[in-house]
Amino acid sequence: MKYYIITGEASGDLHAANLMKAIKLQDAHAEFRVWGGDLMEKQGAEIVRHYRDLAFMGFVEVLFNLRTILSNITFCKQDLLTWEPDVLILVDYPGFNLRIAKFAHQHKFKVVYYISPQVWAWKKSRVHEIKKHVGKMLVILPFEKDFYSKYKVDVEFVGHPLLDALPVKSNDLEFKKQNGLSEKPIVALLPGSRKQEINKMLSIMLTIVPDFPDYQFVIAGAPSIDNEYYQPFVQKQNVNLVANKTHQLLMHSEAALVTSGTATLETALLEIPEVVCYKGSAISYQIAKRIVDIPFISLVNLIMDKEVVKELIQNDLNYMNLKRELKKILADSPKRSQMLHEFAELKNKLGTGGASTKAAQEIANYLKMNS
Known about the structure:
Layout: E1 2-6, H1 10-26, E2 31-36, H2 38-42, E3 46-50, H3 59-64, H4 66-83, E4 87-91, H5 94-106, E5 111-114, H6 126-133, E6 136-139, H7 142-150, E7 155-157, H8 172-178, E8 186-190, H9 195-205, E9 216-221, H10 231-237, E10 240-243, H11 246-251, E11 253-259, H12 262-269, E12 274-278, H13 282-291, H14 299-304, E13 310-313, H15 319-328, H16 334-349, H17 355-369
Parallel strand pairs: 1-2, 1-4, 2-3, 4-5, 5-6, 6-7, 8-9, 8-11, 9-10, 11-12, 12-13
Helix pairs in contact: 1-17, 4-5, 5-6
C-alpha cells in the first residue's frame, strides 16, 4: 500500500519513523512519501519537504512566512492528487495538517491522525473539523480518548511513543568522562529549541548557578542550534554544553530545569525531578491566557490532573523562586521522593509501551474495514 505521511517537526519525525518501521512489519510492500526528516528517510521514505523548512512558530513568524506556508499547502494538495495514496497519515502539526485533512476528505482519501493537535487546550471548535474530515484518530494521552469520545469521534488510545524511545542508561562516570564533565552531580538545563527562547530561558536559569557549588550545570544543546550559539552562556557562568544527547544527559542528571513542552514529559518518564519554566513576551502571554483553557502548562501535570511538578510561569520565573524550587528536589528531600512516586504513576497512565505497533495495527484495521 501507499502511505503519505505529514509531520512538521523533529519529534514528529521520530514518532513517524517508528510508526513506519511498525507498518513495514505488517506490510512488506509499503511505499512511503512523506513530509518529515532524516529518521523517516532512513526508513525508506521519499522526502517531499524536510521539516526544517516547515517549522514556523509564533504569530509574527507565521505572518512573515505566510506566502511560503500557502505555497506548501498548494503543492501538498497537488502532490496528493498526483501520487494517490491509499491512506494519508497526519502527525500533529495542526495548522498545516487540518487544512490538508479537509482537502483529502473532499477528494475521498482515507485520513488517519496520529498524535492529536492540542484542541483540548485551545480552539476546541477544531474538534468538529476533525470529526468531519478525519476517519480515525489515534491519540497518545489517556484523557484525549475521553475528550474525543464526547464528540463521537472514532478514536483509539495507543499509548505514548516516548515510552519506546527512551535510551538505556550507561555508566555515570563513563558518560561524564566522554562529554568532558566533572564527577559532580549534574543539573540539566533544557532551555528550548529556538534561539529567542534559549536566550530568554538560559539568561534566567544561569542566575542560580553560583548558589549550587556542589553541582555542575549542563546545557542540553538542541539539534537545530549550532554549538557556537551557546558559547556566551557557557563562558558567562562556566557551565558545560552537551549537544544532541538530551535523553542521555537527563538520565545522568540529579534534577533538571525544563522549558515547557514535550521535554517536561520526557524528563518525567526518565524519572528525573524537574522544575518547569516558561516565559514568553508579555503580549503573547496575555493572548495565551485568554484563549488557552487548561489549568497547567506541563504535560506531566495535565495527565496527572494535579500539580506534580512546579511550574514557574512568566513573572514567577525569577532567581528567588528558581533557587527555592530547585533546592526542594535535590538530595533526599520529601518533595523529590513524592515527585518520583508520582512519575511512576504517570508511566502507568501512559500504557505499557508499543504505541507504534498499536498505531500500525489500528491503521491496518481501519483500511481493512473501509476498503
